Amino acid sequence: MKTRTILTALAMLTGISLTALAAGYQTDTFRTQNGKDVVITAIKHASLRIQYDGLEIQVDPVVKYAPATDYSSFPKADVILVTHEHFDHFDRDAITVLKRDGTQVFANPAVQKMLGFGTALTNGESREIMKGIKLDAVPAYNITSGRTQFHPKGRDNGYVLTIDGLRLYIAGDTEDIPEMVALKDIDIAFLPCNQPYTMTPEQVAKAARTIKPKVLFPYHYSQTPVWRVAELLADTSIDVRIRNYQ
Fold it and tell me: Looking at domain 2-240, does it have CATH number 3.60.15.10?
């Protein structure tokens, strides 16, 4: 009882949910141009939660991919983003649990078709989710010979989410594709790091040097030695943060 009381007090003081505290999820807080907080919770692998000004945004929520996640213990989502249809990114059960009347679901066309609801975005399309929040769907695909079948060009999405001027790049499953050159003024980047499906640490470092984010979260890394990314970028000003995105 005493422990729960302490956790509740911490949640009230920090604005982080009791669920996140109790489960030991790692969080990072960033400030927007108008002084509001954006809190990012590392749930697992490719799944993350973004909180901003009372809004709940869930990215690639998945229940069963280890460790199993009880999404019923999270608040209902205002926005759900799905990058593509692979089992470690798309889970109808998780979406069902998080969805309420008015929840906006954005996904690549294949996922939108599977769900039968939500908004399909193709590479290059944009939406204003609400005042001060813009979503851009960007390419995510493999380019290395022998890997292109995993994520073919044009099928899947990465996302650039702009929240009150703070720009987050959530890459989805991709390699260091040429289109990354066009990504400008990225504050926070989530880049996948597990071969052969996405990038090697060397590719992540190359992509980061192209994008030049202020903060980099290598994610979707499974058993890849992700600490190598920090080593490879030690000569840059990029703040590499390793969180629980196995």
Answer: yes
* Domain boundaries defined on the chain: 2-240
The token pair that represents 239 in the structure block: 């703040």
Whether the CA torsion 206, 37, 123, 140 is positive or negative: it is positive
Give the burial string for 182-202 (b: 16+ CB within 10 Å, else e): ebeebbbbbbbbbbebbbbbe
87 Cβ partners below 8 Å, 6+ apart? 62, 65
**What pTM, to 2 d.p., does this model score?**
0.91
Beta strands in 141-205 (DSSP E): 156-163, 166-170, 188-192
Residue 155 to residue 235: CA distance in whole angstroms = 35
- For residue 191 the two structure tokens come to 């880049």
Q: What pLDDT, in 10s, does the model give residues 101-142?
A: 999 999 999 999 999 999 999 999 999 999 999 999 999 999
